[in-house]
Inverse folding.
């Protein structure tokens, strides 16, 4: 398992929108590195966990529990075959493009060591938005991405440091539950009856998903 690329984005106009002031950092490109990784601060204030990476709508993106976004190169390759077009590393707006790791199959609370310094912890899957759809330029992209159920993973920073393309990636902790990123994604998007199962992940789960799971369980049992 390794890190194929580290991808950073600069603020650019949002594609396919009538708002001339809307900007996004979703257009991320590989950089040589090294890149400093650290917890950015709480959501709404903190941006990306990677130095030099733009997060423009901080009420929705960035912050400690969504500090880093990772996508498996294998998932990009699968989408290439389905869409009939090439997708570069960073093409989904991900900070980290990995190889040899089932990112969407990772457990909530799973910890990865990248290189010799950085440790990250999986928190949740990525929820697609219209900015993502505009960036890809694919019709009904939000619906198609959601149906696929392989959203990639957001991570929080446990131990800061520097990373670069080619660094080894190692799973150093796997929690004792069965709540994967893919399961969490399905629970908050297409099958809310799965929400009570997320409670097994505890505080490692993104706080918003944990709150949704608790409320559903209180209302419906489970």
């Amino acid at each position: 398992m390794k890190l194929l690329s580290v991808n950073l984005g600069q603020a650019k106009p949002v594609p396919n929108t009538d708002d001339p002031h809307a900007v996004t950092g979703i257009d991320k490109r590989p950089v040589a590195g090294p890149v400093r990784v650290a917890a950015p601060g709480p959501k709404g204030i903190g941006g990306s966990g990677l130095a030099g990476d733009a997060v423009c709508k901080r009420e929705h993106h960035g912050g400690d529990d969504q500090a880093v976004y990772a996508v498996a190169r294998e998932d990009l390759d699968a989408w290439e075959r389905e869409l009939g077009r090439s997708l570069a590393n960073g093409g989904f707006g991900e900070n980290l493009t990995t190889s040899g790791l089932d990112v969407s199959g990772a457990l909530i609370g799973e910890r990865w060591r990248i290189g010799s310094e950085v440790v990250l912890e999986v928190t949740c899957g990525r929820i697609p938005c219209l900015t993502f759809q505009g960036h890809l330029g694919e019709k009904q992209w939000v619906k198609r991405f959601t149906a696929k159920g392989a959203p990639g993973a957001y991570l929080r920073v446990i131990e800061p440091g520097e990373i670069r393309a080619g660094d080894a990636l190692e799973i150093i902790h796997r929690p004792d539950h069965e709540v994967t990123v893919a399961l969490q994604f399905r629970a908050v998007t297409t099958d809310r009856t799965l929400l009570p199962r997320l409670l097994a992940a505890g505080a490692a789960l993104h706080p918003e998903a944990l709150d949704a799971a608790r409320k559903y369980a209180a209302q419906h049992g489970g």
Summary: The longest strand covers residues 2-9. The chain has a mean pLDDT of 95.
